[in-house]
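Hi all, long-time lurker, first post. I run a small reading group and we've been trying to get comfortable going from sequence to structure in the token notation. Rather than ask abstract questions, I figured I'd post a concrete chain and ask someone more experienced to write out its structure so we can walk through it together at our next meeting. Sequence below, copied exactly:
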Amino acid sequence: MSDRTVLLEARDGVAVVTLNRPEARNAMSRQLLRELRQSMAEADADDTVHAIVLTGADPAFCAGLDLKELGTDGGVLNNDPGPADAAAPTADPGRRRAVLSVDKPVIGAVNGVAVTGGLELALNCDFLVASERARFADTHARIGVHPLWGLTVLLPEAVGLRRAREMSSTGNFVDAGTALEWGLVNHVVPHDQLLPFAVQLARDIGTSDQHALRSILGTYQQNALLSGGDAWENEQRRAAAFHRGPVDPAEIERRRQGVVARGRTQLH
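-- Answer (accepted) --
Happy to help. Here is the structure in token form:
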């Protein structure tokens, strides 16, 4: 059994990053956070990787911060802002996904419980696929800590403000079916199909123009921090910058034909 708390496997354009503390329900210790950032950075820097799948070793996705470590010395909440503590969370209000600071798309494959910091980790993914065994809860208030990785922004975006308030106020669990109904996850699949399903979505991402995709996802991230009118203007600015220079009509036509052909296969 590996002594690493995070595993990385890259193949066929997809990197699978797995939290690997199953005996602790993949709770986030300093070591796990350090290795998670290292693995995500490695996958982000790999030019052969187009998308990243983040999951946990069964039976959990992530049970949040390591409460044993937290109760001993404050764990990752006692931040050392110096470079010696690579596990210390960053707080850059101009950049989303502070705990997953990558530019490539991240699909969360939630295989079990995603609680508190684990829920925040899931929310930092671009979108989520859930096993039928997945469960979600925000227990920050029950533990007596404050979210610091974007939960109060990302959870209302996903489920609406009132449902987010309910989850944070009660600490009650939400099952996979309810999470799908509320818009917290995009798909619910049988447990043994979770990783193959998420990896196939990642491969689908790899067939898109990567330059355009990164620009679009970056615009989503920026616009989530802006008001409606400012977001429209930001999209126009980014589009103008993206399309600066001549457009190759032949390349556009080639891609159009590819989209049409792919659409025909998906409509049957």
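A couple of things your group might point at:
Residues 226-266 form one domain.
Residues 80-95 have pLDDT under 50 and may be disordered.
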